Structure prediction request, 282 residues.
Amino acid sequence: MEDYVSESDSDYTSYWRDWFISSRGNEYFCEIDEDYLTDRFNLTGLNTEVQYYQYALDLVTDVFDLDCDDEMRETIEKSARHLYGLVHARYIVTTRGLTKMARPLPFLPSHHLAALANNLQQLDKYKKAEFGKCPRVDCRSHPLLPMGLSDVPNLKAAKLYCARCEDMYNPKSSRHASIDGAYFGTSFHNILFQVYPTLIPPKSVERYIPRVYGFKVHAAATLVRWQSAKRDEMRRRLRKLGVETGFREENGVGEEEEDEEEDEEDVEFEGVEGQAVVPVGN
Prediction:
């Protein structure tokens, strides 16, 4: 709150929500309607979650007039920010809140859509990519949405969700990375796409394909190598613990058979002048 400049305490509280939304690090939040904040039904249960709940609510709704010292005011301001975040998680899953977070444009021909977009005074936060863009190359900078991993406060920080690759990412800014994920909740992004299915992007079907000199690495060979490595790792761990594994080499004849199999594999994949050939596919 120290960055806010005002001439009096009255001015200080009159624009609290405007100050909160415009503060650096709070770009992910939308402004909650005053009617929603003053409806006690929407605040059910929050009085047990927020310290100095009534004072914090008065500050958020611009009716705070308590004469208190700086330490007390700072505590109330912290509670007000926490209260706003908890109410925000409830508000953004309402019809009005979804519209503010991501207002979908109607389905129109491209030239009509462009004209409509030019006439809009305020484009939605989602389509403007105000929450960020997906860092995955094949998603081609698709807009992200904030989300939480828990609805319980002070457990998990906010993440960013990409609807194209259906994965989540950490915010780039440290200010955004410190936002409580409960201020957006675990359901917002899913409800948004159910209410506005036109916002669902085509899924990304492109995948990175590893290649060696232009040839795709054989998937079956890669799987076999991975399975063999995991099997050998498990054998070493079990031997270290003195556990009977039941592998054939422990019966006294398995080791010789494995040596013969390894020799056969060496012969099978032996190339020119004894060089091993890497199995590849088209």
Observations:
- Strands lie at 144-147, 159-162, 167-169, 211-212, 215-217, 280-281.
- Residues 1-14, 104-123, 250-282 have pLDDT under 50 and may be disordered.
- Residues 219-241 form the longest helix (23 residues).
